[in-house]
């Protein structure tokens, strides 16, 4: 799997309130169990240009795992254009109740 979309100085704040750097993000994703019956639905996808070459992306995601209650979260990330490629420099996920 390629992690080239993460800028070297990437930072993530996840639902547990923990901040992670790029290497911690990669390690966490590589160790995440793969659930074969998981489906995710993305809605309310929006972008906002913050400055030239810098964009805020927000969306709502619902994770459906067979036999379990759906998990809802709000996600936001900041992307920066770096050497003609978009790189994520910040990401945050926040659990929310179903709306």
Oligomer: single chain
Helix-strand pattern: EEHEEEE
Instruction: Name the CATH architecture.
Output: Roll
Beta-strand share of residues: over 45%
The geometry reads as globular
Main beta-sheet strand count, sense and barrel state: 6 strands, mixed
Helix content: 10-25%
Distance between the termini: 34 Å
Looking at CATH, which topology would you report?
Answer: Nuclear Transport Factor 2, Chain: A
What is the CA-based Rg, rounded? 14 Å
Q: For the record, what CATH class applies?
A: Alpha Beta
* Uncertain runs: none
Number of strands: 6
Major beta sheet, strand line-up: 2-1-6-5-4-3
What class do helices, strands and sheet pairing give? mainly beta
Number of domains: 1
Question: How confident overall, as mean pLDDT?
Answer: 77
Report the total helices. 1
């Amino acid at each position: 799997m390629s992690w080239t979309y993460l800028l070297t100085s990437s930072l993530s704040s996840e639902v547990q309130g923990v901040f992670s750097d790029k290497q911690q993000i990669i390690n966490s994703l590589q160790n995440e169990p793969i659930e074969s019956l998981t489906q995710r639905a993305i809605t309310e996808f929006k972008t906002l240009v913050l400055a030239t070459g810098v964009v805020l992306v927000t969306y709502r995601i619902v994770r459906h795992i067979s036999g379990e209650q759906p998990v809802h979260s709000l996600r936001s990330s900041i992307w920066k254009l770096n050497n003609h490629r978009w790189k994520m420099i910040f990401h945050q996920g926040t659990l929310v109740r179903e709306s």
